[in-house]
Queue: 4 jobs
Job 1
Amino acid sequence: MKAILCTRFGTPDELEIVDIAPPQAGPGEAVVRVAAAALNFFDTLIIAGKYQHKPPFPFSPAAEFAGVVDSVGAGVTEIAPGDRVMGYMGWGAAREAVVVPARQLVKLPDQLDFERAAGLTVTYGTALYALRQRAELKPGESLVVLGASSGTGVAAIEIGKIMGARVIACASSDERLAFARDHGADATVNYAAEDLRGALKKLGGAHGIDVIYDPVGGPFTERAVRAMAWQGRYLVVGFAAGAIPKLALNLVLLKSCDVRGVAWGAWTRREPQAQHALLTQIVDWYAQGRLSAHVHAVYPLAETAAALKMIAGRKVMGKIVLRV
Ligand SMILES: NC(=O)c1ccc[n+]([C@@H]2O[C@H](COP(=O)([O-])OP(=O)(O)OC[C@H]3O[C@@H](n4cnc5c(N)ncnc54)[C@H](OP(=O)(O)O)[C@@H]3O)[C@@H](O)[C@H]2O)c1
């Protein structure tokens, strides 16, 4: 079978497409024929050796996939060959078949196609875990989403609206902000053209901003925290801008606010049953027409390098998917 392999840390152009032996299902495992795999920003880091996880070589990028169960190992009862499923595996999905623990797979409703399903897990999983478990977001609260047109940003907008928040989307261009509004944002700030702190202070009013969802970092973090409400919650989601920000703790003291980390991937390993329930909720919301699972572009597996360059070049709104 075909696989995209990273054999040394480097650029997308150093990835190789090769033939490898298909996997076998061990006890409790399932082999899935991958129809689509989705890429995330962290795939640009993992192949460069700049991510928190450094898999042993050779490995494939792509943390999430959708496809059809091909075979199952001993003891698997929850799924069967022929089932349409989606799943998460950290890395390794950019190949024609994967083997994963069967209990991690989620069955797909008929109306959810493979390309949308492939990209549902990481971004919506992160956003729901962040807003429900970590932020304890309440109806009527204000929610600021930085990098609002990113994969995880648009997921936070849509889930924030489902949870009853007033969503303020922040991004670097008017095109990105129009996209955010189309996905439910109530108000927008162009942080490339406006002073983020001043704009959020105006939008938050005397009360301030209750929850800030930050997958971008860099210079935006402190500007956003300065607009925070009394007992607000700032969510550390990621650092797409490159720089890991430092925060003056007097701001946290003065606002009696919380800085809360969002390590969704680690949480899925610590609480697999809760993660399965969370993904089932996301699939149900999709089936009810409440989530878009927006796909920006689909690339054939052989063009994984071009797909990764789109993400690294800050050119994507929503998800980039590989057709396998
Ligand atoms: N904590 C978790 O569990 C978790 C889970 C998934 C992802 N993440 C993290 O969340 C972040 C976003 O991931 P994603 O896959 O949603 O990313 P994405 O779709 O590629 O979007 C990244 C966004 O960051 C903004 N950005 C600012 N400076 C940038 C730069 N120099 N290069 C590229 N983008 C830049 C861009 O928006 P503007 O142009 O509007 O600024 C862009 O929309 C990543 O840091 C990722 O590692 C964390």
Job 2
Amino acid sequence: MRKVLFALFFSFLIVAVSQAAPGGGVRCGRLVDVRTGRLLENQLISFDADGTITSVAPAGSSLPSGTIDLAKATCLPGLIDVHTHITGDPSHSGYAGLGISVPRSAVTGAKNARLTLMAGFTTVRNVGAAGYSDVAVRDGINAGEIPGPRMFVSGPPLGITGGHCDDNLLPSEYHHVAEGVADGPWAARAKVREVIKYGADVIKICASGGVLSKGDQPGTPQYTLEEMTAIAEEAHKLGRKVAAHAHGTQSIKDAIRAGIDSIEHSSLIDDEGIALAKQHGTYLVFDIYNDDYILQMGEKAGMLAESIEKEKKIGRLQRENFRKAFKAGAKIAFGTDSGVYPHGDNAKQFGKMVEWGMKPIDAIQAATINAADLIGVKAGAIEAGNFADIIAVDGNPLENAPVLENVKFVLKGGAVARNDFAAK
Ligand SMILES: [Zn+2]
């Protein structure tokens, strides 16, 4: 009898321990409500052991033990960048990139994943990587082997022969073709199936020419409407969204009509393209910070002379069209093309978005609720049921967006990645 009682006692104890497994809490002196644009005072955010937010409420006079106290800071949801190239660096541009192996780029990705997380970006969508190096980085992060943001990755981007997503640096005798090249609707469908087989969460394609590729023009179409319709249909059938690189006016419209989910760059979008994006609910992603970097540092970084010339023609137009699309009410998600400029500087785009027509809250919404909606992730707002992804800064980002360039606290899924407030 005694033994049975002991056994019962211990089994109760085990149940009690596992139920009481520690989650945690963060008290924020101020909290940006990203849906309303209001600043809430003195809030306590609680989360469970799985790193999911369970409640957000005014903090009482005494805090539960173990609460992280950020009484002097302003908290926001972890930021989201929907257009990164985490396995690449600016120094990999042009011919230098040919000397970098896929395994080597995965190591670069591990370095950049950490920099991105420390800068306050707790989720990223990585759209284009050599081989499946981004799949490897994602899996390493998810296994707890390296620090980094929650990653949604594409693997190699799909494109036409000789297009922006091919690699056109070597002459024909090398027979070099980038992994994502697929011409024609059925080859493109097969490529969608292939990248999903090897781990893609999202499909990246090149609809038009680009800036950093050799021998093409940003404004000219590459994938046809027919090819993109096949890609979108195949990807959606298999539960994946499609991001289309499209600078060109015609390609933007073709991609939207094909049912693509987001238009990357969107540089030469016209009024009809903006109207189509609104009608289809397509997200537009304008990477309007990196123009500064390309023009100032591109040559030093080894970018092709033609790339810098192309950027000179397109950079300002992209910013003007960003302002136009935003004013017209198109859906905009925050994406920066990190890797074109150094990783960790992602938040420098907030200031540009304000300079070109947004209020700080609009830019913050692009990098939180809008980006989360595009990716389809339970993040982007500090609300029960979402991942406990919280960042904190000094100052008020609703008045001064560039304070987001100095993130001092990062919590990802309930785990502290950075806390400069505690160091004081
Ligand atoms: Zn890109």
Job 3
Amino acid sequence: MLAVGLFAFRAIPGLRAYFGFRGKRLITCPETHKAAAVDVAAGEAAVGAFLSEPTLRLKECSRWPERQDCGQQCLQQIEVSPENCLVWNIVSTWYEGKQCVFCHKTLSGLHHLDHAPALLSPDHKSVEWRELRPEQLLDVFSTHRPVCWNCHVTETFRRLHPELVVDRKLEPKRIT
Ligand SMILES: [Zn+2]
């Protein structure tokens, strides 16, 4: 009974570490001073938290395999603010309150069950944010504009099948 209680007691920080450190994150690489996308070894962090030995290690980095033997100094940034470097949160904050360039609908942050919003490139192609490499997102945010999912679908169709789209002007008589 005591053992079960002790196990449950230790399992809570383990689970918290696992769920807290999952997901793709953006950090500023201390070597290049540019954005890099990393994954923390969440399973290992969970076992570490369970055994009261915090172990934070990277599982993946966009600069690997070339720089696989780096000192992983960027982990400090994740330790200081694990939430703020989550790609999901960064993207969500960027969309929040912005307007779709086509329909001017105000966008909210990301929601797990919703379709992903998109971005309009300077050459007028819309692309879903998930299709972009995470380490490019910060640069992309300065050159691209927000597009809602509905307009992304419409614009993609219009771009791929211009022969099937007819633009009808609104007739004032029909509206009144
Ligand atoms: Zn729209």
Job 4
Amino acid sequence: MLGATGSIGRQAIEIIDASPDLEVVALASGSNELGSLAAERGVEHAQVGGDLSELLDECRPDVVLNAVVGFAGLPATLWALENGVTLALANKESLVAAGDLAIGARERGGGQLLPVDSEHSAVFQCLEGRPLETVDSIVLTASGGPFRGRTRAQLEGVTRADALAHPTWQMGPKITIDSATLANKGLELIEAHFLFGFAYDRIEVVVHPTSVVHAIVRFRDGASLAHLGYPDMRIPISYALTYPDRAATAVEGLDFSNGLSLEFEPPDLETFPLLALARHAGESGGTYPCAYNAANEIGVAAFLAGRLPFAGIAGVVVETLEAVEGAPAADLDELVQADAEARRLAESAAGALVP
Ligand SMILES: NC(=O)c1ccc[n+]([C@@H]2O[C@H](COP(=O)([O-])OP(=O)(O)OC[C@H]3O[C@@H](n4cnc5c(N)ncnc54)[C@H](OP(=O)(O)O)[C@@H]3O)[C@@H](O)[C@H]2O)c1
């Protein structure tokens, strides 16, 4: 369990504790100590930071739950895919940054890649067992975040606390800011492209404020299948960890007796430019998605540290994408270099944008 101390990690512990078939053999975090968590659970292998593929080599798990935040999750994603070990993937940044390498590793390794992101788990479930040629397109839903309905001018001066107040999901700080800027949906768009193999023009994003519908798949006969449930990450975490059994969880099913209305609207691409920028980076291919992700990570960190205004996050990404070369990476070393270069450019863009 990688990212054991985070929001997904803590919820996964709850799922694992409720399942007699699941046992944690290794824990990893970024900086928080794991000693007491490992001791409590009798876990022998634990690692704080560093290259997590070393930990995985040591403990050889049957399933890797990658719930690390950010590009730091990449070695673990590639390790699991290359070794044919089932990967329950919450760490979307690794698939966005290294999609081509990850898909190559999955083909060589032949293991399962099970999405933990709720929208992708929903798409996976709607698609399961259905021939891909019967699919017309997929639709990812976005809550719209805390600033839905605002104009660009109304976003000036929003604070860290405003941006961290997500209306429907309780999550770690980085993804919560990504939800406020819609970069999260941009990352998910690229993630969906690599997970399911659809071209970008067959992946749509709609805003759905209550986050009850997680994704929709349209089929060629005009029918659509949707996946619904209260927004609770324990459902997709459990689905990935107990696939194909679909174990029971403590989450309530939907209650229709009090009325349930489902509203959808198009995203406001002008106020939230990071969604369209992600689509553009994805369509450009090569290491553009890697640069998008790196610049966004730098922008979010600078915003959280009070060094950048909210709109500056998109500004940093725009400037970085304009400056990078975006050439495809032949291997992990080249990808790591592309990531480092994008981070360097993003840091300097962030420095120049400080008010
Ligand atoms: N939270 C959600 O509801 C949700 C939903 C969908 C997808 N996701 C995705 O799941 C991932 C985790 O999100 P989260 O919300 O759980 O984040 P979080 O609460 O911030 O937790 C992040 C976890 O990653 C660990 N970590 C950070 N850097 C690391 C490193 N270099 N090596 C090893 N571990 C490291 C952290 O350890 P420390 O505690 O030591 O910092 C922590 O355990 C992200 O990719 C996010 O996009 C989350």
